[in-house]
Amino acid sequence: MGTTWKGFATVTVMLLCFLLVYYIQSNMTFHKISPFSTFGQKTLLQRRRPPPFKSLTFSSWDQSTCLKPRQKFVFIKTHKTGSMTSVNIFQRYTIHHNLTTLVAKAGGYISWPFPPAETDYVHIPGERYDVLFNHMVYNKTWLWSKFPANTAYISLIREPLGHLKSCMRFYSLPQLLRITSTNPIKTFLRDPWRYKNLSEAYFRFCNVTWDGTRNHLAFDMGYPTEGAEDMEAAERYIKGLEYDFTLVLLLEHLDESFVLLRRLMCWEMQDVLYDSVPKNVGNYSYKSYTPTPRELANLRRWKAVDYLLYDTFNRSLWRKIAAQGPNFYQELYYYRELKRNVSFYCNGEQKRKPNRTLTVEATKWSPQFVVDAEYCRIMQTTAWNLTEEIRQKASRKEEGRWLIIRPVLNLRSIIKGQPTLTNTGLNR
């Protein structure tokens, strides 16, 4: 009897182990790469990095899930939100699919902080454009006059505290606010209203007021600085944005955002990968500062519109993800592994052996594709240089006299008591 029971228990344990292995393999995503998958794995493990790709396979690409990708889109490039990394995806898609871009006559700004004008961009016959991915204040009326009704509107925002820290450093706001402490964030958040007359920068050339400490995110999305205290108007405006935009990405959840973008746009996996090596990242003494509860309460009151904007699209993101079903997280796992390994390949092996390519096999989310030197080059090229490539490809020479003055330069002019300008040496 004892022997029989032990045998039964052994068989049961083996069966359970088999079922567990089957469940894991059927619910997790793995991919295989050739020829890199057999090259250098020992070296990678010694460096405490994950091996390039696991050897198990899974379902093939089913094209019926996405018959027609959306290839008309506007990406509103916001300030200090990680948009330098994100815009690469939209520029890359534009290049790979030879789409027609509404491009600035010079630089990467269509307009800011003023409404767009016909003199700000390069006109083409018929005025029919597929994409836009520049800095500009969101202007629904103007954009709807340039793009068809089926255009997808996309943008990117970030949590307001991190945004304020980044703005404080980038725009030299302590100088504008006349704060001399080593932690300007702490000093400012003790009483933000004390600095209101200093923080509101007035751009005389276009009669626009901008505040880099307050609702900068909402401003880039088209909400005026003067509406900071009118929360009813802010709520109405942000509800309109929620209706207008196909997706607003969140910097704190960038991977989830791009997996959702791929699904909503019916794009392929290769279209939404980005280089894992950080770009345009600065370190400064107050970057890691955690405000006190009272300082955070002041911040929420001061940046009430930005917090309403962020909270709205935070809820919207997770609501849209929930609607995708549980396999969204299988794809997210696969996406993160693929992104990490492609980045590792482009920043390592490809640089050592430029002729070596990386073949990513088909999955249920994307067909097979090849990562080569050109793919790596474009993925690692800065937004400014890719904009110039797109301009040159369309035989559009940069016209320097139309170069929009960047806001950081106009802020420096205000700090020095000098006039602000629209274009290089030119008032609007």
UniProtKB/TrEMBL annotation:
A single BP term in Gene Ontology: glycolipid biosynthetic process
Q: Which domain of life is it from?
A: Eukaryota
Give yes or no: UniProt keyword Glycoprotein.
yes
Q: How does it sit in the membrane?
A: Single-pass type II membrane protein
Keyword Membrane set for record: yes
The subcellular location is: Golgi apparatus membrane
Q: Which residues cross the membrane?
A: 7-24
Its GO CC terms are: Golgi membrane
Entries under Pfam families matching the protein: Gal-3-0_sulfotr (PF06990)
Query: What are the UniProt keywords, alphabetically?
Result: Glycoprotein, Golgi apparatus, Membrane, Signal-anchor, Transferase, Transmembrane, Transmembrane helix
Q: Give an example GO molecular function.
A: galactosylceramide sulfotransferase activity
The family assignment reads: Belongs to the galactose-3-O-sulfotransferase family.
Q: What is this protein called?
A: GAL3ST3 protein
* Organism from which the protein derives: Branchiostoma lanceolatum (Common lancelet)
Q: Which gene is annotated as encoding this protein in its UniProt record?
A: GAL3ST3
